[in-house]
Each structure stands twice: as structure tokens, then as C-alpha cells.
Amino acid sequence: MRTSVVIGVICAVCALPAALSAEDTPTYAVRHWVLDHLADATFTPPLPDEYQGLTSKRAVQEMWYGDAEGRRHPWRRRLVIQEKKRALRDMRDALILPGGTTATLPLPRCDGGRLVFSVAAFHKRRDSKNLGITLKDGLEVLWKADLEVRNISRHETWPADVVVPLAATGGDLTLAVGRYPKQGYVAWANPRLECPAKAGPVNVIYIVVDALRSDVVGTNRRWEGPSISPHIDRLDAAGATFPAGFSNGNTTLLSMNTMLFGAHPRALGFLMTYWNKVDRRPLFYAMRPPYLTRLLRDHGYMTHGATHDHLYFPAYKWGVDPGFEVLQDSGRDPEDATILTDLSIAFMEAHHDRPFLLELNLLAPHQPYKPPKEVLEEVTETLKGVKDLPAPVAYLAEVAWADRHVGKLMEALTRLGLRKKTLVILTADHGEVFDRAHACRDWVSGKSCHQSHGLTWYDEEINVPVMVSLPGVIPAAVREDIAQHVDLPPTILDLLGLPIPAAMTGRSLLPALKGGPRLPDVPVYSESWVSRAWRTRDWKLIHHTRKDTICPTVAKKVCRRDGRWFELFDLRADPRERKDVSREHPDVVKDLAKKIEAFRMELYKKSGGEGPNP
After folding, report:
1. pLDDT tens for residues 62-94?
2. Could you tell me what percent of the chain has a pLDDT over 90?
3. The whole model's pTM is what?
4. In the 3-class helix/strand/coil scheme, how is 389-422 assigned residue by residue?
5. Phi/psi zone of residue 439: left (φ > 0), alpha (ψ -120 to 50 degrees), beta?
6. What's the 3-state SS for 24-84?
7. What is the DSSP letter of 256?
8. For the chain, which domains are there?
9. How far apart are alpha carbons 35 and 25 in whole angstroms?
């Protein structure tokens, strides 16, 4: 049994296109063996079948992802440590063991390898004396320590990783936790085998700049004159860039998940995870959503998220766990950009010799547009006299602030010698509405559409940058293909030579990235809970359902509060979508409305066709 599993993992890591292997390949292949083989472990005394350990509504979360067969171990949890100084939450995948417990499981052969993990001790009620912990290979003691026991609310950082060399022949690994103090617990976080490897796949970095419009950076920048984003522009010029890049959602919750699981949210039941005050997330997880984080983890990657996104935490009622092994979230704006970039760089430095997936999510230029004073002054001076700016200077200064951190990350990537073997994708979760013609107000919440997002489907909100770079593999080009968020995970998997799950609804852009002919046009379908849009090269139809509570200025003649209604735009004649022509072209409205409904039902059936279908 051991041999077949080990060979499978090694082949998955190494069976990649030769063109994607750099001469200086990663020196270790990662196997997430321990947490994925808890079903083979022996616990003494036996652990209860139901979790009865350390509890905290915010700090201890259920772990919804299991092993290759979908089995979930009740004592495997998501543990969140919160640091007040940086407003930082650090969530890890951990096995929780009560004091006095011994865990033993067989290890595969890993010649010259090592076991890497982080470990912390907790007490249900108070700080306490040290708790002893011992790691053995058979009778040989590999590592032992006395851990300071603290109440979970008093832990502010995870301890540094422990690196333990392993015997070449494998054997039985035993973790023994001391009996005292009573009600003490140990969290064994992200234990993994790292075995020497002759070759490895490229790394993957997602840079997601929140609320970044496509027309303020790179090739799509609208104004003539000085740029405020030199680092993003450099990334744009280094690979394939898609001016026709689109998000499939207009909120962070929808878009950030779409670009990780490669499917329209309705196709996975994601729109209904919290519906009519019923928590349906267990049903969503039961579908085993094809998160890129989990797929790459299962093929030997370390996965790390550095975000400003509380929606990634299950404690939030609309939040879902996107499956990063380590998820670090800072809520301190604007310092979060520096905090998260530094954490990302530290992660790359620590894992430069292992394949990794990293997501850096920068909050700027999200509202309320309060960049550092010196950045605002610099951008104001740079853009003095420039006409036809598509956004306020304060917003553009936040773009410049984000750009500095993109540059800092890319400089570190080059310094570490990783640039030529790292696929870098830069995009945004959505854009931002600034055109006065698109002003509107939600008559229930009072929220304005202007200088905001999440309420409309105009291009200034869903046309986002899509930049893809991998030196030596992806030639520099401005592509005319339509690229959507749902296409990004299939593209990454295709480039890595890995299978694309049937649950994904996007397409691979790899032929376009390699310089092939323009891909066939496909319609862009974007939706939320109460409205949806269908966009082609020629037309865009926005469908407002009966539950939608906004009335845009551009559509005031047809906006109705008592039923569904539509906005239609002739994109060839009116690319900025300032004239609704739904009344002039009822035949086009009817045709596109049918296509929206047919595709909506196709996605619903793909989700299993059960439950609500908003």
C-alpha cells in the first residue's frame, strides 16, 4: 500500500512538460502525508469519534477537506491565531491532540528527507506550565520539546517551523503528548514530508488587486501621459495580456472563489451557501469543489494565501474555506499592503526549494481611497494637467500604492532566482464604478453605485486586468481573446500538465498563451444573487430580477420595482454603456434573455439540480 501511494505522489509532481522545468529545479517534493493518512493512524488512548477538544467560535473551525477518498477526521481542524498588533489572522491545517495522547502512523520511504511542521500548545481556560512533546521514529527520538501552554486567545503567532531529518527507510512515526497539564492540547500544524527530487513543476503566484479597473494600468490604460503603475505595466509587457479580461462576479466573495475553483458559482451551488438564513455550506463542501489550492496541494505544492479578505474564513456566515494550507489575513488598511507583501516574501524565502502556490491579495485601491499622504501627493503631481482620467486621483494613488508592493514582490522573486520558473497572474476581483451615467442607489440599503461595486454589471465594474507571465514559455503579446476568471484555474492546470476537473466550467487559455490563433469568442456570463449579465463582442444584456433593488440612471426609463427588467447596450456603438437601447431592440433582449436563462439552468443542473436556484 505504501509503495503505490508514494509512487503516485512522486509521478504527479514530476510528470510535467519538460519546457516547464528550469535548470535549477526545486530540490524537494512535498508530500502532505500525515494529515492525509490519519485514517491509517493509531491513537492511544483512542480519540472519540466526535471532536471534543479545544473550542472557540472564532479560533477553532471545522476542517471540511479530507483525504483522497473524501474521509474527514474529526480531530483535524482549522486553527486561527490572531495577532492584534498587525490585525493578523493566521489559519492553519492542524491535528488537535489532547494531553496524554500518542499518535502513530507509518511513513513511506523518503531518502534524505525531512519532516516539517509547526506545533503549539493550548489550554482551555488559562496559561499553564509547559507541556512535553516527543517525536519518535520507532524507538529513536527524533525531536522533543517543552511547549509553553497558553490560552488560545493569548497566542499571537504560530511558532517557527520545526525541521526534523528522517531515516531513509521510513518506519512508524510517533507523536507523544505529555499528560500534564490537564485540559492541555497540542496543535500539530501542516506536518509534511519533504523528499529530495530531481525535477519539479513551476510555482504559481496569483496577485489579486482589489477593485482594480482594467483602464488604469498596462495596455488598457485610457489616458495619454505618465503612468502611475510602472511595476504592473512591466508585468503586463512581459507576458500575455488580455484587454478583454472579465470577472464573473462583481463582489469579492464571488470573484475570489471563482478564480480559485474555475467554475461559475451557480455550477457548484456556491450562490446558495447561505440562503434564506440556512447555512448550506456543508452541501457545498460535500460536492468537493475543485479549488486550485487543493488540487495543487495534492500534487506536492505548498499553498499560501496572504489576503485582506475575511470572506475566506468560515467563522463569517458567508465565508468559505478556500483550502489554503496557510491563510494569513490582515485587516489593517493601508498598512496591510506592506504586511501581506512581507509575509508573501517570507513565504517564498522559506519555500524557494519547493513548489508553491501563493496568492497575494492587496486591498488597495478599494474604497474609501485613503492612500498614504506621500503617495497621494506624488500621484497628484504626476497627473497634473492630464485630462480624461477614468477615476479620482485618490483612487489612482491607491493603485500606485498597490503597484509599489507588486514591484516589491517581483523584485524578491527575481532575487530568489525564481522568476524563470514561476507563473505569475495579475488580475482584480472586480472594478469600480465612476461614470456618472452609471450612478444608482439601492432603495433598500441606501448604498450608492457611484465609487463602489457589487451592484452593477457595466464594463467598468467587470472588465479587469488579466496578465499572465512565465519567461521562456509565454511570449509577450497583447491578446484579443476573451479571458474570464473561470478560465484561470483550467489554464494553470493545463500549463502544468495536470487534468482539468469536469466540475470546472472555464476553458484553458494555454493555446493563446503559447501564441496560437485567437480562440473562438465565448459569451461572458456574470451573476450575483439578484442580477446577471450576458456579454458578447456586440451586445450586453443586464437582467435585473424581481429581487433586485437598484435603479441605475442610465436605465431610469425602464427601471421597475415590481418585476424583472433589462438593460441592453450596443457595445460597438456605445462602448462605455451610456445609452440603454432595450426598448429599441426588443428582439435582441428576448434572444439574449433566453440565452441567460438556458445557461443559468445548465449551471444549476451541473450543481446537482437540488435546492434553491435564485
Report:
1. 999 988 888 999 999 999 999 988 889 999 999
2. 69
3. 0.93
4. CCCCHHHHHHHHHHHHHHHHHHHHHHHCCCHHHE
5. beta
6. CCCCEEEECHHHHCHHHCEEECCCCCCCCCCCCCCCEEECCCCCCCCCCCCCEEEEEEEEC
7. H
8. 28-196 (2.60.120), 203-429+464-520 (3.40.720.10), 526-606 (3.30.1120.10)
9. 26
